[in-house]
Amino acid sequence: MERIRALIVDDEPLARDRIRDLLDRDPEVAVMADCRDGQEAIAAIREHAPDLVFLDVQMPEKSGFDVIAEVGVERLPVIVFVTAHDDYALRAFEVAALDYLLKPFDADRFAKTLGRAKAQIRSRQPDEFQQRVLSMMEGLRAAPRGLERLIVKTGGQLVFLKTEEVDWIQAEGNYVRLHIGGVSHLLRETIQSLDDGLDPRRFLRIHRSTIVNLDRVREIQPLVHGECRVVLTDGTKLTLSRGYRDRLSRFET
């Protein structure tokens, strides 16, 4: 029997190594490539035409959902989504009967997931799988989204923060800084994944490195070259870049 061609996509080296180690134990699977980000994943899917992809949802620049959108649902292999969150995305996967791995996962959970993926591949019904992915993507776009809380480590403890308390969010590489009143917290999360997960009725991406809580906005002042200054209720001044200007349109009358 021809071996199943697999692809691993995750921005965390340890996560990639973990999945590869588990796949290497299975003689029915051949790993074609490891990808560190969404752009590499898109190129590798087009080059290798894998049967199976383990796809991290939260990655810098391009998320797992961005990869799907760019590759096109009609060209998708079977996908196992990998995520560190138990939020709206997991509910969407479950509704669409799509498989996922919640980090951290053990060998037993991985084996069950891999077994289901193999069965899906061998059923030779790609249209059914692609339709479920399409339904999931449409559902994510249409449904009100909203992380209700974030968990940060501070002083050796886990602190639960309500997202509604966050004033604004600033990107710092593969981390973000949450500004709440006069205090800030560092969270290992990308600005893109938070933009995907926060309630769009409350939070607005105004810059490639900035998300703002609309409830904290006092005024927006036009600047030159299409940019604007966003002034928060506490006096904080942020920049709304020209590339994100059109996101304001849904709030304008």
Summarize the structure.
With 253 residues, the chain is α/β, with parallel strands linked by helices. It folds into two domains: 4-142, Response regulator (Rossmann fold, 3-Layer(aba) Sandwich), CATH 3.40.50; 149-251, OB fold (Dihydrolipoamide Acetyltransferase, E2P).
How would you characterize this protein structure?
The protein is built from 7 helices and 15 strands. The chain is an alpha/beta fold. Helix 2 packs parallel to helix 3 and helix 4 runs antiparallel to helix 6 (126-142). The model has no long low-confidence stretch (mean pLDDT 85). The protein has 2 domains: 4-142, Response regulator (Rossmann fold); 149-251, OB fold (Dihydrolipoamide Acetyltransferase, E2P) (Beta Barrel). The strands form 4 sheets. The chain has a 5-stranded parallel beta sheet with strand order 2-1-3-4-5, with helices on both faces. The termini are far apart. It is 31% helix and 31% strand. The radius of gyration is 20 Å and the shape is elongated.
